[in-house]
Amino acid sequence: MSENPDRGWFDDVDPDGLEGAREAIEEGRADAPADWPALAVEAGFAVDEDAYYDRLHEATTMAARETIREREAADDRQLVHAVRAMDDCERTANELAERLAEWAGTVDPDARTGVDYARELASRADVPPEERRLVSLADRVVGLADEAAALRAFVEERTPVVAPNLAALAGPVLAARLISLAGGLESLAKKPSGTVQVLGAEDALFAHLHGRAPSPKHGIIYVHDAVRGTHPENRGSAARALAGKLAIAARVDHYSGELKPELEAELDDRIATIQARTDSGGDTDE
Amino acid sequence: MSDNLPAGVERRDFDGVDRLATRGEPVYGEPTDGEWRAWDPTRSKLGAMFELGMEGGFDGGDTVLYLGAASGTTVSHVADFAGPTYAVEFAPRPARDLLSAAESRPRLFPLLADARTPETYAHVVESDVDAIVQDVATRGQARVALENRRFLADDGRLLLAVKARSEDVTRDPADVFADVEAELEAAYEILERRRLEEYHTDHLGIVARPR
Ligand SMILES: C[S@@+](CC[C@H](N)C(=O)[O-])C[C@H]1O[C@@H](n2cnc3c(N)ncnc32)[C@H](O)[C@@H]1O
């Protein structure tokens, strides 16, 4: 049987460390199958067929796991674009809504700023010809706001797939923003927690490094309840604790993809402790 | 009920309902009873084929090539009762769950590959498997079965679920099935065919052996 022209996946694979196994499985080719278990034993790759199947299981699951992780990681690019587009649509809708309010104020005594007013204006029937442009602009504002909402729904749905632990801890939108600010899940996973803590506060950090400002305590993680819900005095500690867990979550998501619900419980514990400090501190200080 | 069930597949009582079951870790939230897990025929074409009494020709410890493993719903049951089970799936997303199913099943081998190109996994999947189970639900289902004939032992069995709508949504399923069967005849002799209607709309179950 060893004159079989095709080679098994195991031919150049180290039987112990299974080095090269993934490449051999994914890149290998053979026109016809063969009695691979017997051939592998004959070639000394495994002592018997049971041992061969054990190695095959290890090799195929390892190869599949890595491929899945790589393809899913590619999805973080999609997420980065989507969350940036969402922010752009929201910001543009709000800016245009202001422009619209200013203009509408000249013809409508009840003109207000905001997307809700734009929606009202856009749905108006019997528009006199001189107000057509105004109403058409309102229509664009509404369209942008709707697109922003649709993008938000997309981000909320995709983030838990790309980064389940980070999404659970930060909420899907903040998680997507962190990934976006870092430039991808892999780069986020490689950042120390101190950097995660100030992501989004680059301007303040820059000023600080040039001696023009105090060091920023937090970047966009400020919007997280753990920070916002904590007394200003202790927000630094809260931000540090949160950033620490977020950094771990990003690493788990990038490197293993396993679910670690305990991270959330640990964070809640830690934040409760920090917040208790202010409560009891307040009692003793006064 | 004449029991054509493979060894390791049993009818058991789950909350007063008689259901197919295998022994293994649960995979898709199916009810369990001790080590046994119910096999839901509405979520599995092979489960439906067994439920309808189709004869798969399994005789214990069989080697199986499974094409279209998706998230592992059916192939996990197969690995529970069969021997070495090669699971081919080309979409990475469902394969993540397939991977979890494989974790507790040491003889289930996940392969991210395209079932239309067997040469990309013939260096891994062994020759002379006892059964090919196919549920790919894409256009060209007969072609996939023909291409994979090379893996099957001469006395092995093909257990094929054909989804009519995957071939052509506009045609009458009966016509689609007739074409698929005619195409299969090139390499297989059809032993049994049954519509799976009770469990899966517009699906045909086929058991065949190589010519
Ligand atoms: C109906 S689902 C299979 C469900 C599965 N057999 C079960 O019962 O648990 C069909 C699967 O076949 C996969 N598939 C379709 N074409 C394929 C191909 N050419 N190669 C491998 N997998 C394919 C699809 O990605 C999909 O996951």
Give a written overview of the molecule.
The complex is a heterodimer of chains A (286) and B (211). Chain A is mainly alpha-helical and 286 residues long. Helix content of chain A is 68%, strand content 0%. Chain A contains 13 helices and no strands. Chain B is of the alpha/beta class and 211 residues long. Chain B has a seven-stranded mixed β-sheet, with helices on both faces. In chain B, strand 6 (85-89), helix 3 and strand 7 (108-112) form a beta-alpha-beta unit. In chain B, helix 4 packs parallel to helix 6 (173-184). At the A-B interface, helix 1 and helix 3 of A face helix 3 and strand 7 of B. The complex binds S-adenosylmethionine.
pLDDT below 50 for ≥5 consecutive residues: which ranges of chain B? Answer: none
Output mean pLDDT of chain B. 95
Query: Which distinct ligands sit in these coordinates?
Result: S-adenosylmethionine
* Largest β sheet strand count, sense and barrel closure of chain A: none
Estimated helix fraction of chain A? 55-70%
Percent of residues in helices of chain B comes to: 10-25%
The dominant shape of chain B is globular
N-to-C terminal Cα separation of chain A, in Å?
88 Å
Strands of chain A, total number:
0
Largest interface: A-B, 31 and 27 residues
